[in-house]
């Protein structure tokens, strides 16, 4: 895994789904936590739920948003 230095302060949003959530019809996907990283604080600590899918991204997307759309 390559580690790249952080150029500026950045927010990371955590999205996760646990094993218990997999068959829920009322499941919503929203950021469950936010972390800030910067050149002076380039790391963070978090606790992951067992048997979960966890994603960290700089993109904040709420469940009610229309999604990510790319045009050529």
Briefly characterize the structure.
This protein has 72 residues and is mainly beta.
Pattern of helices and strands? EEE
Relative helix content: under 10%
As laid out across the biggest beta sheet, the strand order is 2-1-3
| Distance between the ends | 31 Å
Structural class: mainly beta
Mean pLDDT figure: 85
Q: Which regions have little confidence, pLDDT < 50, spanning 5+ residues? A: none
**How would a crystallographer describe the biggest sheet?**
3 strands, antiparallel
What is the molecular shape? globular
Task: Return Rg in Å.
Answer: 15 Å
How much β-strand is present in the residues?
25-35%
Strand segment tally = 3
Question: Would you write up a description of this structure?
Answer:
By secondary structure, this protein is mainly beta. It has a domain at 13-57. It has no helices and 3 strands. It has strands at 10-18, 33-37, 52-57. It has a 3-stranded antiparallel sheet with strand order 2-1-3, with no helix packed on it. The model has no long low-confidence stretch (mean pLDDT 85).
Summarize the topology.
Layout: E1 10-18, E2 33-37, E3 52-57
Antiparallel strand pairs: 1-2, 1-3
What characteristics describe this protein?
mainly beta, 72 residues, single chain
